[in-house]
Amino acid sequence: MWKWLKQRFGPQPVATPTDTAPSTTVPDTAAAGPASEPDPLASLLPFVIRPLDAGDIDGLMTVFRDAIQVTAANDYDQQQRDAWSQAHDTHSLADLLGQGEVMVAEWEEKPVGFAQRQDSHINMVFVHPQASGLGIATLLCQHLEDSARVAGIATLTTHASLTAHDFFTYMGFVSEHREEVQRGGIALPRHFMRKSLQ
Q1: What confidence category does residue 24 fall into, taking pLDDT thresholds of 50, 70 and 90?
Q2: What is the structure's pLDDT at 192?
Q3: How far apart are the first and last CA of the chain?
């Protein structure tokens, strides 16, 4: 539906840092990848940002796996993407998302993206590849940043995947160092990034 709307009423967004899918920490963190200019059509499109609901987990599992397998394909090989996408099943994802604050982007009554903050850490940001380029990851992160400010948090950190690095840079995060995380015995490179909220 959104592809048709974008083709019918507006140009495709120009690729610059804004959003897509795999971002933050390689499996346990975000997935928001190459970003694109916010689409002016996005404000007319029927997606909503809301808190996590118990019935979202199956849909978020699909978002998580598809974002990794499709959006991260230019930065991680198949073995790495398989190890990353299999790091969670529905039970472990539900347990993880039961911690901290989780916001969900819903489109036509289906989740197409989500983001999680645990205290001062942005732990996950994933947007389904078919919903990328509409500013969804940006809106999710802005919500988490706003709630962090309200909570008196002065600095946010994240472990950004290679795919999400440019997105987080666009959002004002600075890479402090590159690191690796192991998933199923497979090394996944990522960036530790930080942003001041003051």
Answers
A1: very low
A2: 98
A3: 39
| Residues 80-119: b if buried by 16+ CB within 10 A, e if exposed | bbbbbbebbeeeebbebbeebbbbbbbbeeebbbbbbbee
For the cut 70, the answer to whether the pLDDT of residue 131 exceeds it is yes
Beta strands 121-127 and 101-107, pairing class: unpaired
Residue type, 147: S
Give the residue from 185, 183, 163 showing the smallest Cα distance to 15: 163
Tens digit of each residue's pLDDT (9 = 90 or more) over 175-195? 999 999 999 999 999 999 999
- 133 contacts 43 by C-beta, under 8 angstroms: no
Is residue 11 scored above 90 in pLDDT?
Answer: no
Q: Which of 166, 162, 171, 163 is nearest to 144 (CA)?
A: 171
Q: Which pLDDT belongs to residue 46?
A: 66
Distance CA 190, CA 198 (A): 25
